[in-house]
Amino acid sequence: MKYVIGNWKMYCNVSQARQLVAEITTGLTSQSAKDLEIVLCPPFTALYVVYQDIQSLTSLKIKLGAQNCYFMPFGAYTGEISPSQLKDFCQYVILGHSERRRYFAEDDKLINKKIKSAIKFGLKPIVCIGEQKRGDNKEGIFKQAESAISGLQPGQIKKIIFAYEPVWAIGTGKQPEPAYANKIIKEIKNVTKAKVVLYGGSVDGENVGGFVKQPDIDGFLVGGASLSAKEFLKIINQVKEG
Ligand code: PGA
Description:
Layout: E1 2-7, H1 14-27, E2 36-41, H2 44-56, E3 63-66, H3 83-86, E4 92-95, H4 98-103, H5 108-120, E5 124-129, H6 139-148, H7 154-157, E6 161-164, H8 178-192, E7 196-200, H9 208-212, E8 219-222, H10 229-241
Parallel strand pairs: 1-2, 1-8, 2-3, 3-4, 4-5, 5-6, 6-7, 7-8
Helix pairs in contact: 1-2, 1-10
Bound molecules: 2-phosphoglycolic acid.
């Protein structure tokens, strides 16, 4: 099965989120969504309405993800949200996104704790790893991957979805060669024994085709282009066609 995951980041208020969901679901048929795992990751403030809308607007099995969580199940942690709270309506949670690492000083150790907690509460973590600059040594990517799975059993590792996201490719319009991304993704699978590894970084309806053809890329984590229903649907259709 292939994945198309939309990371809306800190965009959309409630009405904009509802509008985007309506446009996406109108453009999808049960045929176009068949054998695909489509996951929307709105901001926290829109999770609940999006949850309600995807339940009522469509019979399509669109899934929901959060963009972050804390590792404690509950407690006096002002401003944080726990995996057990997300579990009410989410199946997935993005963890270790490069923007969390960069702007909120999240390190490998904290991300590993969050991954463990998400799995414990039945969420599937979408774990982002990637090098800072084009041409950087690959070791950093594998260090992040190994740290992510530290202390996990093989059965738990299979619940993780890794997203190979070169930091220099995020929101920049730049991308690695699809064959290079495939090579890194294959190595991530070898190192971690994870089953699903996605590519992310400036994916849009035009350039996704080259990545779709690669044998080891299991789908895409899409940022900017997921905020346009037209672009997001284009990506879905190309992944579907294979
Ligand atoms: P982008 O973002 O598609 O806008 O490059 C991807 C991501 O941050 O997950």
